[in-house]
Inverse folding.
């Protein structure tokens, strides 16, 4: 048994060394899928850590009570003293151990360098509060004529301590920059949980969504000064004896929300990334499988004689199958390792929670379960794509394997008859396709998956109300970064697959192409025929991918109306895909058609 | 030319100083080394020699499947050297027909589809190509096998299909590389009879062979060794009409 293992591993290692480029391609394909999955898994739950650190550093409240009437568009509704008294009575409710506020809060706008941005201004005392005392990370705390800006918002605005900003038409000097755990940091805002302000219609997102609002702290008197243009809402911060009981407390007291809902609002920032990554991971996994199917099938065709030799010297079918499986399993494990390292390097770029929280977001940890999941998936991909060729190799008769007799391709009388009526390149392409229908199917699937991904990304961009943004939007920036990464990976993998398919088609069609040239076809006609053999299956793939991408995004972004990207973008994806396939297949096809046909005919 | 009934002295194919080398430096192999050859219209020339002497390479050079390292080839008075790859392909599809030892039929195509393929590549209409293919298959005695796949045909039948394919575009010259090399005696006779009838119809043939019986059917026999012609012999009267007796398969 030990000898058998040593033999199989040696044969596999020799074969990998003999074909380093193909081994590298297998590694690349699996590694790309493993990287995406690693990032998706690593993102899970990473935001909890910085929020907890911020809660500790700022004595974050467990429950926040809001009194200010109903949010959304409409006339201002001043808070009555009875309403304020009712809110203040929460400080004595059972389970409440400490509180701060109620603090007056007002909706306003901040103007800076020609931009106008919505803002919530909260009036605070100069003395520190026992609950929710924002932690100043730069500069100092509020004073008359000065403003402290929430750090995520300051980052997005690009303001620094000492700058002057215009708030509600008045000039304020930036005294400091701080973080809080009582309100979700920019680009989220209080209005993402409860909106106590009558928000002007102009600030609503496309489709009536909640606008992005910054948070600033001023003195109470400054907030009262700003309130001339709108009503004042009040925020009351409560500390409970048992923070875990916050949801139960909120259920009994309308107009309140929990620290958990703030955490959820923060996590929503990354939630969209997780959905996108999971979706991208699936698409890239499918592409990897299609690419491996072509690669492994091609390797088996090339190894036919080697299989015969192994059998002739006494190797059992199990040994023959074992060599192939061992090769791909070794490559899959190496690729999983590469994917884990690459994923762990990329994930922190996506998981940074921004400046709105203190503490590190925690490098997305590559847990043991992540390693196991990635390794198992990589092994499964390698095994699934190798098992059929391995069994076929094991079952091949020794004599026919030694003779390296090519597999008789299936006969397609209808296709042959139709192709006879077409120009020579199309005739050659259709007959090439009829010899390898499964490869054509893999090609079509590969292109369909790629176009689906690209169209879904376009649909997501068409849905995000970018037109309403006036300053840098962290959420959109991150989503853009992520979709660029997924797009690049999809395109790279699709390009690799297309090149595999073109190479395999040119290599498998070497003999028939040489014969066709001997019978009078020009090298140009053969090249065009091979290119079209890749382009023809790509055409339905690209066509199917467009509605599929729109529908997939509709399913992922549940609750949103069907979003169709602009026609010019769809046409661009379609044409660019076909152009890329043409270019990528032309090179191996041309190289394949360059050798004199006589030498190919003699060696086959 | 002794077989004057069918041949003329006008060469349809002329090669002079033909060389083909492979490799470089100390490893250079001179597969064809300064060969001169004239083939007259309607003539059958057999080239014999041991394995590796360069006869197949010579045939590939004559048919434009390989480009020579040196020397010149004229086909029907037109130089073949230096012409573009496209022109060379045009030449292969219109002026030259190839018959290979391994038949080289497309496995997934029927006999008639294999025969019509060069016709389609030459731009014939599907109907015309099919009609000509049918006519040729009748001519080679396979009228009842047109719809058969190569795997359902015997070796001799496959080679006859390949010969029909070589003729579809009415080539000036047919180049056959060991056409009986993969055949048993009976199939060899079938193919030789076919070559004989082609010869009688005035078709120019160059046949590379190991087989003395095949060589005996030629008007001229050339011996080749190490890339050069070492002997040339005109076959008085050739085998025409006496093939069976000549190859010992029929009585006097």
């Amino acid at each position: 048994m030990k000898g058998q293992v040593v033999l199989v591993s040696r044969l596999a290692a020799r074969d990998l060394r003999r074909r380093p480029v193909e081994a590298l391609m297998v590694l690349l394909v699996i590694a790309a899928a493993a990287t995406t999955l690693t990032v998706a898994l690593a993102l899970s739950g990473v935001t909890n850590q910085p929020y907890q650190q911020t809660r500790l550093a700022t004595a974050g409240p467990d429950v926040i009570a809001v009194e200010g009437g109903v949010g959304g568009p409409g006339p201002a509704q001043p808070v009555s003293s009875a309403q304020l008294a009712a809110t203040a009575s929460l400080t004595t409710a059972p389970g409440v151990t400490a509180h701060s506020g109620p603090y007056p809060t007002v909706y306003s706008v901040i103007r800076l360098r020609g931009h106008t941005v919505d803002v919530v201004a909260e009036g605070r005392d100069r003395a520190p509060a026992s609950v929710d005392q924002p932690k100043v990370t730069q500069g100092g705390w509020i004073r008359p004529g000065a403003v402290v800006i929430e750090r995520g918002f300051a980052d997005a605005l690009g303001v620094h301590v000492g700058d002057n900003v215009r708030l509600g038409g008045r000039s304020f000097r930036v005294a400091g920059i701080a973080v809080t755990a009582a309100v979700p940091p920019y680009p989220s805002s209080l209005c993402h949980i409860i909106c106590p302000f009558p928000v002007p219609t102009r600030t609503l997102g496309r489709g009536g969504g909640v606008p992005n609002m910054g948070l600033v702290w001023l003195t109470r008197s400054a907030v009262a000064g700003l309130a001339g243009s709108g009503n004042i809402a009040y925020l009351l911060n409560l500390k409970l004896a048992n923070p875990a009981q916050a949801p139960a407390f909120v259920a009994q007291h309308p107009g309140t929300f929990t620290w958990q809902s703030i955490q959820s609002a923060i996590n929503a920032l990354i939630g969209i990334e997780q959905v996108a990554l999971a979706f991208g991971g699936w698409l890239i996994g499918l592409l990897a499988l299609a690419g491996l199917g072509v690669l492994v099938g091609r390797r088996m065709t090339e190894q036919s004689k080697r299989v015969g030799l192994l059998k002739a010297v006494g190797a059992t079918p199990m040994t023959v199958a074992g060599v192939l499986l061992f090769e791909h399993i070794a490559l899959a494990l190496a690729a999983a390792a590469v994917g884990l390292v690459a994923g762990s390097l990329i994930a922190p770029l996506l998981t940074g929670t921004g400046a709105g929280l203190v503490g590190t977001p925690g490098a997305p940890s590559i847990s043991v379960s992540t390693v196991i999941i990635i390794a198992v998936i990589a092994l499964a991909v390698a095994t699934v794509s190798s098992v059929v060729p391995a069994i076929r190799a094991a079952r091949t008769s020794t004599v026919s394997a030694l003779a390296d007799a090519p597999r008789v391709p299936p006969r397609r009388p209808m296709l042959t008859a139709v192709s006879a009526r077409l120009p020579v390149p199309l005739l050659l392409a259709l007959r090439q396709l009829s010899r390898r229908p499964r490869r054509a199917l893999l090609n079509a699937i590969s292109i369909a998956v790629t176009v689906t991904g690209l169209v879904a990304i376009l649909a997501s961009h068409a849905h995000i109300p970018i037109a309403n943004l006036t300053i840098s939007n962290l959420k959109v920036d991150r989503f853009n970064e992520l979709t660029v990464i997924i797009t690049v990976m999809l395109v790279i993998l699709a390009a690799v697959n297309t090149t595999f398919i073109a190479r395999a088609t040119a290599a498998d069609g070497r003999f028939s192409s040489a014969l066709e040239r001997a019978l009078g076809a020009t090298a140009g006609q053969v090249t065009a025929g091979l290119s079209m053999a890749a382009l023809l299956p790509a055409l339905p793939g690209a066509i199917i991918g467009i509605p599929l991408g729109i529908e997939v995004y509709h399913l992922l972004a549940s609750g949103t109306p069907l979003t169709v990207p602009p026609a010019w973008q769809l046409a661009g994806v379609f044409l660019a895909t076909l152009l890329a396939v043409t270019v990528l297949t032309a090179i191996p096809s041309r190289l394949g058609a360059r050798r004199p046909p006589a030498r190919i005919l003699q060696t086959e | 030319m002794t077989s004057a009934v069918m041949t003329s002295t006008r060469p349809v194919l002329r090669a002079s100083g033909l060389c083909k080398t492979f490799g470089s430096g100390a490893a250079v192999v001179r597969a064809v080394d300064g060969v001169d050859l004239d083939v007259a219209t309607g003539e059958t020339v057999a080239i014999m020699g041991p394995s590796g002497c360069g006869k197949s390479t010579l045939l590939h050079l004559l048919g434009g499947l390989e480009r020579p390292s040196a020397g010149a080839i004229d086909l029907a008075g037109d130089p073949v050297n230096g012409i573009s790859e496209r022109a060379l392909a045009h030449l292969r599809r219109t002026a030259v027909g190839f018959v290979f030892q391994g038949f080289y039929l497309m496995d997934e195509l029927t006999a008639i589809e294999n025969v019509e393929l060069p016709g389609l590549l030459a731009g014939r209409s599907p109907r015309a190509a099919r009609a000509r293919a049918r006519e040729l298959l009748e001519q080679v005695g396979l009228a009842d096998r047109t719809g058969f796949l190569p795997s359902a045909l015997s070796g001799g039948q496959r080679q006859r299909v390949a010969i029909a394919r070589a003729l579809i575009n009415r080539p000036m010259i047919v180049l056959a590389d060991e056409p009986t090399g993969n055949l048993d005696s009976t199939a060899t006779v079938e193919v030789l009879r076919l070559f004989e009838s082609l010869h009688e119809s005035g078709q120019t043939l160059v046949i590379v062979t190991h087989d003395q019986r095949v060589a005996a059917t030629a008007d001229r026999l050339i011996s080749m060794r190490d890339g050069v012609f070492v002997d040339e012999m005109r076959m008085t009267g050739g085998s025409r009409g006496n093939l069976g007796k000549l190859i010992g398969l029929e009585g006097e």
Summary: Residues 1-6 of chain B have pLDDT under 50 and may be disordered. Strands of chain B lie at 11-22, 29-40, 44-48, 70-75, 78-79, 96-99, 173-177, 204-209, 220-225, 228-234. The longest helix of chain B spans residues 185-200. Residues 43 and 204 of chain B are 5 Å apart (CA to CA).
